[in-house]
From TrEMBL, chains B, C:
Organism per entry: Lutibacter oceani
Function summary: Part of the ABC transporter complex PstSACB involved in phosphate import. Responsible for energy coupling to the transport system.
Protein name: Phosphate transport system ATP-binding protein
GO terms for MF: ATP binding; ATP hydrolysis activity; phosphate transmembrane transporter activity
Membrane topology of the entry: Peripheral membrane protein
NCBIfam families per record: 3a0107s01c2
From TrEMBL, chain D:
GO molecular function, one term: phosphate transmembrane transporter activity
Name the UniProt record assigns to this protein: Phosphate transport system permease protein
NCBIfam families given in the database record: phosphate_pstC
Protein role: Part of the binding-protein-dependent transport system for phosphate; probably responsible for the translocation of the substrate across the membrane.
Entry membrane topology: Multi-pass membrane protein
Keyword Disulfide bond: no
GO biological process: phosphate ion transport
Transmembrane domains' residue ranges: 12-33, 64-87, 108-132, 144-167, 188-209, 262-281
Residues in coiled coil: none
TrEMBL record, chain E:
Domain of life: Bacteria
Signal peptide region: none
Major location (coarse): membrane
Compartmental location: Cell membrane
GO BP terms in the entry: phosphate ion transmembrane transport
Source organism of the structure: Lutibacter oceani
Family: Belongs to the binding-protein-dependent transport system permease family. CysTW subfamily.
Protein name, as recorded: Phosphate transport system permease protein PstA
Any Gene Ontology CC annotation: plasma membrane
Keyword annotations: Cell membrane, Membrane, Transmembrane, Transmembrane helix, Transport
Lineage: Bacteria, Pseudomonadati, Bacteroidota, Flavobacteriia, Flavobacteriales
Membrane-spanning residues: 12-33, 62-91, 103-124, 130-155, 205-223, 254-275
Amino acid sequence: GEKKEKKATTETAVLEGTIKVDGSSTVFPITEAVAEEFRTAQPNVKVTIGVSGTGGGFKKFSRGETNLSNASRPIKDKEKAACAENNINYLELEVAYDGLAVLINPENDWVDNFTVEELKKIWEPAAQGVIMKWNQIRPEWPNEEIHLFGPGVASGTYDYFTEAIVGKSGSSRGDFTASEDDHVLVQGIAGDKYSLGFFGLAYYAENKDKLTLIGVNNGEEVVKPTLETVSNGTYRPLSRPLFIYVNSTSVKSAEVVEFVNFYIDNAAELAEDVGYIPLPSELYTKQKENFKAFVESNK
Amino acid sequence: MEITMTKVKDKKSIDLDKVEQQSSTDGAKIAIKDVKVWYGDFMAIKGIDMNIKPNTVTAFIGPSGCGKSTFLRLFNRMNDYVDGFKMEGKIKLNGTNIYKKKVNVEELRKEVGMVFQKPNPFPKSIFENVAYGLKIQGIKDKKFINERVEKALKQADLWDEVKDNLKKSALALSGGQQQRLCIARTLAVEPSIILMDEPTSALDPISTAKIEDLIFELKEKYTIVIVTHNMQQASRISDYTAFFYLGELIEFDKTKTIFTNPEKQQTENYITGRFG
Amino acid sequence: MEITMTKVKDKKSIDLDKVEQQSSTDGAKIAIKDVKVWYGDFMAIKGIDMNIKPNTVTAFIGPSGCGKSTFLRLFNRMNDYVDGFKMEGKIKLNGTNIYKKKVNVEELRKEVGMVFQKPNPFPKSIFENVAYGLKIQGIKDKKFINERVEKALKQADLWDEVKDNLKKSALALSGGQQQRLCIARTLAVEPSIILMDEPTSALDPISTAKIEDLIFELKEKYTIVIVTHNMQQASRISDYTAFFYLGELIEFDKTKTIFTNPEKQQTENYITGRFG
Amino acid sequence: MRKIKELVIEKSLLSSALVTIAVTFGIISVLAIEAFRFFSEVSIFDFFTDTQWTPLFTDKHYGILPLLSGTLLTSFIAISVALPVGLTISIYLSEYAPRSFRKTIKPLLELLAAVPTVVYGFFALIVVTPFLQQFIPGLSGFNSLSAGIVMGIMIIPFVSSISEDALHAVPKDLKEASYGMGATKLQTAFKVVVPAASSGIIVSIILAISRAIGETMIVAIAAGQQPRLTLDPTVPVETITAFIVQVSLGDVQHGSIEYRTIFAAGITLFVFTFLLNTLSYRIRKKYQEKYE
Amino acid sequence: MNSIQKNRLKDQLFKIWGIACTLFGLVLLTVFIGDILIDGIRRIDWAFITDLPSRKAEKSGIYTALMGSIWILILTTIISFPIGVAAGVYLEEYSKKNRLSALLEINISNLAGVPSIIYGLLGLEVFVRIMSLGASVLAGALTLSLLILPIIIVATREAIKAVPKSIRDASYALGASKWQTIWNQVLPASGGGILTGVILALSRAVGETAPLIVVGALAYVPFAPSNPMDEFSVLPIQIFNWISRPQHGFIENAAAAIIILLLITFVMNGIAVYFRNKWQKKWK
Ligand SMILES: Nc1ncnc2c1ncn2[C@@H]1O[C@H](COP(=O)(O)OP(=O)(O)OP(=O)(O)O)[C@@H](O)[C@H]1O
Ligand SMILES: Nc1ncnc2c1ncn2[C@@H]1O[C@H](COP(=O)(O)OP(=O)(O)OP(=O)(O)O)[C@@H](O)[C@H]1O
Ligand SMILES: [Mg+2]
Ligand SMILES: [Mg+2]
Ligand SMILES: O=P([O-])([O-])[O-]
C-alpha cells in the first residue's frame, strides 16, 4: 500500500502490519484509545489488545508473543529473568498516573472513610473466613455480611494494592469476587448494598453515578483520589504510575515505532480523556527521547 | 336433555327419551340417521341410515379403508378427538341422540364398551386392568370391585386361567388371553353395547375360536357390533351383516341373505373375493 | 462359481452351471432345498423344500406372519440387509445356488425382479422411474433407454395412459397406475422371474382386475411368484399354490387341488376361513 | 471394480463415524492428563474435602466443594422452574392441544432453547435481577437465584419436548382403551399415558439437569465469580463452568497451575454430565426396545 | 356434583393450567425480546454494522465481531457438514448391530450431552496448543465443529430413518448397489431433513460463547479476519464484553448486538423449520 498518497500531517509512509498488545486492564483504556485514534492515521495497521492483567501480559511478553505489554506496576525480578531467558530486551515507558479507588455502593450510608489499617484488616490473608461482617471493622457499622470485590491476581492493581495495604505483593484473602474484568467489579458493587471493592480510578470516573468513592486516611488526613491528589502525591499510598513495555525485536518494524511514538505524543490527552492523570509534559519528552535511543540501538 | 347417570351397581341402560323414542324405528338399540363424516376435506362416510337391533350381533364388512372403523367408532364418539373430524346426522342410542351438545361423553362410553383390533391391555396388573373402569368412576369399595372383577373375568372366560395370578402384569399374557382380558375390562363397567373392531385379526386360530364362542354367549345380554375382514367369521357369528364400500352402506341384511343371496352385484363381488 | 453377467441388450437367463443343473430337480426354475431362516433367535422358516416351474404363476398363501414374505424375499436375497437375518439351505436359480459366496447380488436382482405390496415409485418422474434400473447399470445410450422404457410401459399396460406425461411425477399417478408403473420398472431390466408380494392388496377392484390380467399375460414370458392374502385371487390367477403356516410349508400343489381337495386339515381350515 | 468402490465408500464413511470416538478419546485424555498433573500437585483428598477454592491466590486452597455447591445450587433452581412447567406443557400439548396449535407452539417453544445463552445472561443480569430486587431487598447484583430462574426458562423446552415425544409415543390404542371406558383426558393422561411414558420423562429430566450443570454463560454473567460454599440463593456464587471462563479470560499459560485447575474443574464437570448422560441413554434404550 | 362432574371439572382446570404454562415461556420470551428491542433498536443503523469497536459506545460497531461470526460459520460448515453427514449415513445404512455400532451410538449420544465448555478445553489443548493454531478462527471453527458434530449426526440419522424402507427395497430390487441406492434415493429423499438438522446445528454454533472464550477469542480485535489463522472475535463474545461494561451506552450496544444475533439465529431456525415442514409433507 505504499503507493497511496501521504497524509499531510505525518511524514511517514502508509504502513501495514499487526501489533499485539496484552496486559493490564488498568492501562487497557488508554491503549485502546490510542489504538483507536491510531487507526485514523494508519488504517492498515491492525492493533489487537488483550486484557490478561499485568502479570499475564508479562508472561506473554517474556515469551515473545506480544509486541507491547501494558503494565500497572513495574516489571518484577522474576519477570525480568523470564525475559532474559528468552533474550527479550525491553524498554519501560511511563504513560500516565493512576489512583486506586476504594468504592462502596451508593446506598451504603455508614462508611465515610477507611484507614489504611482497616483496609489491611479487611484484606490481609488472615481475614479470610474471619472478617465477614461490617461491624467487625467498626462496631457501629451494621451486622451484615460484607461482600468484597477486587481485581484478579494476574492484575498489577492487585499486586499494587496488596503491596501498599497488606505489605506484601500478592498476599491477600481469597474469598472475594476476583475478576480481571473491572466492569464485573463495577457491576458487583453497584448491585450490592453491602459491597466493598477497589480498582483503578478510571473505572470510577466512568461510573460515578453507580458507585461511591471513599477517602483513605493516610494517618494525617482523609484524601480522596482526584487529578490533583494523585499527581501531587497526597493520595497515599494508593497512587501509582502506569507503563507500557516495548521489546527490542518489535522496534525493528516501522509500524510499532510509529505506534509507540503516536502513543507518547497523545498519551496525555487520551489518558485524561479516559479518566487517568497525565504525566508532566517534560516527562513525556523524556520518554520520547528514551524511546528514540532504544530504537536506534536496536536497528 | 342429558343422559342421566344410572347408579353403577344396578345395570340399566341409558334412560330413554320418551318423545324421541316414539319416532325411533321399531325398538332399534342404535338408530343411525343420514350420517356423514369428514376428515378435513375427505368424506369418509357418505350418508348412511341403519338400525341395529338389541341383543344381536351385527357384522360390518368391506374392503380396507371403506369406513367400517370410522362408522363403528361413531357409536361411542371415539372419533371426537381425531383432528379434522366432522360429522352430520343423528345417532340415537335407546332413542337419545348421542351427538347432542349436552351428552356426557364419559357416561356414554361406559354404556358403549369397545374392544380393539390389537389387544391393548394397560401395562398394569391383570386385576388393575379390569378394575380400571370402576376406579375411574371414583369407586373405592374394595369388596365391590373384587366381585366385579371376578364376574367380568368369568364372563370373558378368563377367570380359570388367571385367578391365581391377578397381580401378574397383563403384558405377560398371550395375545388371545390379552384380548379376552380387554373384553373383561369392558364388561366390568357393565355396558349394554359392545363394539369390536377386528377383535381376532391379530390372533391365532385357537384364540380366535375362543373369542367367537364368547361373542356368541355375550349376545344374550349385550348388543354387539363387530368389524371383521374375515367373511367366514362374519357368516359364522353374526345375525346381521352390513357391507360398506367407499364410505357407503351398500347392503345391510340378515347375514344369511348377504352371504347366499345378496341383492347388489358389488356385494357379491366382494363376498366371492373379486377384490379386496 | 459366479453368476456371469449377461449382456443387457439381449435378454438371456443366468448361465447354467452344468454340473449343478444335473442334480437340480426336473427343470425347476427355482429349486429350494431345506431352507431355514432366523431373525435373531426367532425361526421364521423352519425347513422348506420346493420346486418352482418356469413360466408358471405360483401363489403363496397363509395367515399373517407365517413367513410368506420372508420366503419370497429369499429368491432375490432381499433379506440380506435385515439385521439378525440368518439362513441355511440352498436355493438354486437355473441350477445355480444363489446363496454362494461369489454370487453377485446386484446381478441376481436384475434377473429376479420384485413388486411390492404398497406401490413404491421413486419420487421422480415416470420416465426416471422406469429408466432407473438401466441407469444404475451405467447405460447412457439415450435411444436405447427410451426404447426400453416404452416397451416396459407397454408391457405393463400403462403406456397409453402416461405416454404424453412421462415427465410428470410418479407420485401423481393413482394407486393402480403406480403399481403398474412399478411392474414396468421391473420389466425394464428384463428379468426372467418376477416376485410379487401382495401386489393388489392396496388397490381398488378395477386396478386389481387390471393387474390380474397383466399377470396372466406376463406368465408367457416370465416365472411369477406371488404372495396374496386373497384366496380367491390365488385360485383365479395361479397354477400352483403353496400354503404356509407358522414358518412351515403345509401343502404345495396344483392350485385346483389345493382349493378343491386339500390333503391337510389345516389347509382346509384356512381355505374355508376358520381363522386368519 | 464396483465392489472395491463400494468398499472404499463404506470405509470412508466409517472413518467419519470413528471421528466421534476420537473426539471422546481426545476429551477424556486431555482432561485426564492435565488433571493427573494437577493431582500430582494437589491431594485428591483436599480437592474433595477442603471448603475453599482459592487457586489463584497466594494462600492456595483447592477445594472443589464451593464450585460444586454453586453448580448444584443454580442447577437446582433451574430444575425447580423447568420441571413443573415443562411437564405440564408436555402433557397439555400431547393430550389436550389441537394439532394445529401444537404444531405452531412446539417450534416456538424450541426457540427458547435456540436463544444464545449469552443473551439469557444479559436477561438475567439486566432485567431479572433488578426486578427481583424489588421484592428481595438483600439480593446481590450477582446471585444464583436469577441465574437459576433464567436457566430454568431456557431448559423448559428440553423437558417439554422430550417428554412430549415420549407421551406422544405411547400407543394410541392404550389411550383409546382408557377413553373407551369413560375416562377423562386428565385421568387418561395421569393413569395411563404418563406411567407408560415415565422412562421418557425421566430421560428428559436427566438431560435437563445435565444441561443445567454444564451451562456456562448465564451463570458466568449473572451468578457472580466468587467461589462460596453456600445454599443461599441471594449471594454471588461461582460454578465450575464460570470458573473456567473466569480463568480463560486472563492468560492461561500451558504448564501453570492455573491452566491445570481448569482441567481439574473440567473433569469434575465432565464426570457428572457423563454419568447423567449415560444413565439417560440406558433408560432411553430400554424403553425404545419396549415399543419397537 | 357427582364424581363424573368432578372429574370433568378437574379436567377443565388442568387444561387452563396447561395453557398458562405453555404461554409462560413464550410470554417471557416476548417480554424479553420487547425489552431488548426497546433498549437496542434505536442503536441499529448501517454504521453500527460497519463500525469497528471503539472506547466510545456511540462510535462502537459490530463489524469485526460479525465478520468473525461469518468466518466461524463458514469454516464450521465446511468442516462439520461432510463428516457429520457421512457418519450419519454410515450409522444408519451400514453399521450392523454389533459392539462397534453400540459403542458409536452411546458415544454420540454422550457427546451430544457434553457441556460446550468442555469442548473449549479440548480445543485449547489440541488445536491451540498441540497443533499450534493459536487463538485463530480456524481453531475456533474446529472446536465448534466437534461441538455440533453429534447434532448433525443425530439429525442425519433421523432424516434417513424417515425415508420409507419401500423406496430402498425398490432400488435394491432393481439391482442397485448399496451406495447407488443411498446416493440416488436415500440422500435426495432425506436432504430436507438433513439440511434442517445442519442449519439448526449451525445456529447453535453461531450463538456459542464459552468454548470460544476458552479457546482464546479476543475482546478487542479491531479488524476482520482475512485468513483462517487470524485472531477473531464473534458476536456473542462482543455482547458478553459489552454486557460487562456498566455504562448505559454499552448496554444499549449489547442490546442492539443481541437483536442482530437473535435475528441471525431466528432466521436460521425459521429456515430450518421451513425445510422440515416442506420435507415432512413430502413423506406424508
Ligand atoms: N384420522 C384420520 N384422518 C384422516 N383420514 C382418516 C383418518 N382415519 C381414517 N381416515 C380415512 O377414512 C377412510 C376410512 O377409514 P377407516 O379406518 O374407517 O377404514 P376401515 O374400513 O376401517 O379400513 P381397515 O379395514 O383398513 O381398518 C380411509 O380412507 C382412511 O384413510
Ligand atoms: N426384520 C425382521 N426382524 C425380526 N422378525 C421379523 C422380521 N421380519 C419378519 N419377522 C417375523 O418373521 C415372521 C414372518 O414374517 P413375514 O413378514 O414373512 O410374514 P408374512 O407371512 O409375510 O405376513 P404378512 O401376511 O403379515 O405379510 C413373523 O413372525 C415376523 O414377525
Ligand atoms: Mg378399520
Ligand atoms: Mg408379508
Ligand atoms: O492493571 P491490571 O489489570 O494489571 O490490574
